[in-house]
Design brief:
The complex is a heterodimer of chains A (about 250) and B (about 260). By secondary structure, chain A is mainly alpha-helical. Chain A has a single domain (about 35-250), classed as MetI-like fold (Orthogonal Bundle), CATH 1.10.3720. Helix content of chain A is about 80%, strand content about 0%. In chain A, helix 3 packs antiparallel against helix 8. The longest helix of chain A has about 40 residues, at about 160-195. Chain B is mainly α. Chain B has 12 helices and no strands. The chains are: A mainly alpha (about 250), B mainly alpha (about 260).
Chain lengths: ~250, ~260
């Protein structure tokens, strides 16, 4: 039904229209607010002069590089901990001591060790991505049907063969869910690092717009960051459906 | 805990001690410049010194204060809004999709907007922390309300309960596990945003402490601050878990 499809759009459209009207009627002059038409105009300008596309490239590069490194580490540790129970128990205190450190607290350490730029941002994003990957991979590997492991033993597969042929394929749907969550975290952490301190990317762009008192440009950046986050999420959910169908949904609500 | 579990625990603590010893060794051999990596002895000394002079305690208290106020405000508003949206089919159809759109937004992107509106103030920090922490709680509440066993609602209707009574007596208790899980999740968000706001606005807290230590290349103080932040995250999360177990004891018993 067309009304059902339109329902979700009604509220944001009505709010924007009301805000536009209010801004026009009161001749809004503000450092923090701008009417939607001005925001869209600023967005179009910034897209055309390539300032937003370049910032997007910087942010996504740092986020994805950190995601790749962090999830590779988390994945290998998660598989190791999932397969070997003694190893998991021995590392428990160490992992529980490091995991609760908020990723952003590493920012000053990364800053003095690596300076501004991609490297410090990538390190912090990677640190943040290790943990969800590790924990969810570990539980995915643990919940593999025990009979599969028995088969691998009966076939006398070596450890590497067992991981490549049994463990990873069996745990893959839930590992992808972990990857999807980590990708969201990677983007959030990258933008946060840029806002807090690092002078590159979308986060730095929105801070600069705020300091220049360009409310329209600032809100345009905010809108764009929202669109990027939403698009990334949609893309990964679509990929998950496509690749794994319903198999991955089992891991969504553990 | 039986004996095997205690033995594993001890072994696990020994492994962690081994890592700390390795860290000390690396620092002592100057494999990494001491400007970046102080040994655990120096970090510990800085921690003790900071607490005995009272500096670090007041910073820690500042961070806890930001976190607690923002988180509590977010919890109250999140549960109230979530209950309002979750208990009405109309609100779910019209409002929930907009919320789903906002969910993947990196919340820290709201910080510049908050600075433009409220300046570099405590109020700005509280607004940002509460805004960031509200999402997990509100969405968990909506989800919890939507997932209430339909037969319970039928019972409520046949008892002719009012809407407030349904929310208070049926929906909230059965959504409680979801809500508490959301509150635990948003605690981490609150801590991270507290640190970011303190870094940006120079508010009294551990965020400002670690940044100033880094700027002055006082790496021992810096590591002391990071260790404290880790401890804060760990202990607050354990505290909420304990409350969670306590509040959900009736559910475990019912199963």
């Amino acid at each position: 039904m067309s009304l059902d499809r339109a329902k979700p759009l009604l509220l944001p459209l009505a709010l924007m229209l009301a805000f536009e009207l209010w801004a026009r009627l009161t001749q809004l002059q503000s450092d923090s607010l701008a009417p939607p038409s001005a925001i869209l105009a600023a967005l179009a300008t910034a897209l055309a002069d390539l300032s937003i596309p370049i910032a997007t490239r910087d942010t996504l590069f740092a986020a994805f590089a950190g995601l790749a490194i962090g999830s590779a580490i988390g994945l290998s540790l998660g598989i190791a901990f999932g397969i070997s129970h003694p190893l998991d128990r021995l590392m428990e205190v160490t992992v529980e001591a490091i995991r609760p450190i908020p990723s952003i607290a590493l920012l000053p350490i990364a800053l003095i060790a690596l300076g501004f730029g991609y490297r410090m941002e990538i390190v912090i994003v990677a640190f943040a991505c290790v943990w969800p990957m590790l924990i969810m991979t570990r539980s995915a590997v643990r919940s593999i049907e025990p009979r599969l492991m028995e088969v691998s033993r009966a076939l006398r597969l070596s450890a590497t063969q067992r991981i490549a042929k049994i463990v990873i394929p069996a745990a893959l749907p839930r590992i992808f869910v972990a990857f999807r969550l980590s990708a969201g975290i990677a983007l959030i952490v990258a933008v946060t690092v840029e806002i807090a301190i690092n002078p590159i990317g979308l986060g730095a762009g929105i801070m600069l717009a705020q300091q220049a008192l360009r409310a329209d440009l600032m809100l345009a950046y905010l809108l764009w960051i929202g669109v990027i986050g939403y698009a990334l999420n949609i893309l990964l959910i679509a990929a998950q459906r496509r690749l794994f169908g319903r198999a991955a949904l089992a891991g969504d609500n553990p | 805990m039986n004996r095997a579990a205690i033995l594993w625990r001890v072994a696990s603590i020994l492994v962690a001690a081994g890592f700390i010893a390795a860290w000390q060794l690396i620092a002592n051999l100057h494999l990494v410049s001491p400007v970046f990596l102080p040994g655990p002895d120096r970090a510990w000394a800085a921690l003790v010194r900071g607490f005995s002079s009272g500096d670090l305690a007041s910073k820690l208290f500042g961070t806890l204060e930001h976190m607690a106020y923002g988180w509590l405000a977010a919890s109250i508003a999140g549960i109230a809004l979530g209950a309002l949206i979750g208990s009405s089919r109309m609100m779910r159809a019209y409002v929930a999709p907009s919320l789903e759109f906002l969910r993947p937004l990196p919340v820290s992107a709201i910080i510049p907007v908050a600075i433009a509106m409220l300046g570099l103030t405590q109020g700005m920090a509280l607004f940002v922390i509460a805004f960031g922490a509200i999402w997990p709680i509100m969405l968990a509440t909506i989800h919890g309300f939507a997932a209430v066993e339909p037969r319970l609602y039928e019972v409520a209707r046949s008892l002719q309960m009012s809407r407030a009574a349904i929310i208070g007596k049926i929906a909230l208790p059965s959504a409680l596990p979801d809500i508490l899980a959301g509150m635990r999740l948003s605690l981490t968000v609150a801590l991270i945003l507290s640190v970011v706001c303190e870094i940006l606005a120079g508010l009294d807290g551990l965020g400002q402490w670690v940044l100033l230590s880094a700027r002055a290349f006082r790496s021992a103080d810096l590591f002391a601050g990071v260790i404290l932040l880790g401890a804060t995250g760990y202990l607050t999360s354990i505290a909420v878990s304990l409350v969670e177990q306590r509040l959900l004891a009736w559910q475990a018993a019912a199963r």
